[in-house]
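FORM 7B: Structural annotation worksheet

SECTION A. Query
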Amino acid sequence: QVQLVELGGGLVQAGGSLRVSCAPSRRTFSSNAMGWFRQAPGKEREFVAAITWSGRSTYYANYMKGRFTISRDNAKNTVYLQMNSLKPEDSAVYYCAASTGGIGYSPLAYDSWGQGTQVTVSS
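SECTION B. Predicted structure
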């Protein structure tokens, strides 16, 4: 397993942008598919976006509607989630996750998780 650390959460006004990042605390994850999930209070953890180890393919939840972009820089050993046009309903704890088995839309497809970073969007 890989220990992951998310950074970049915070408070932003509706319509604003925020970028969260994820990096391993020790070894690299350049060979892992990576995903972002989010969980709001009282709700299940839901898929946001994922990216293959090469970065050539990306996958998004339908409700993203082009507002979020996942990317990775394997040279910097970092995965990013750029979030634009944020809405109050995007408020949640955002988690990054690493998969040794490839891309998945379920949390069960991922082997390692970060501790999460809070994103709060005010109306």
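SECTION C. Observations
The chain has a mean pLDDT of 92. The chain is about 0% helix and 50% strand.

SECTION D. Sign-off
Analyst initials: ____
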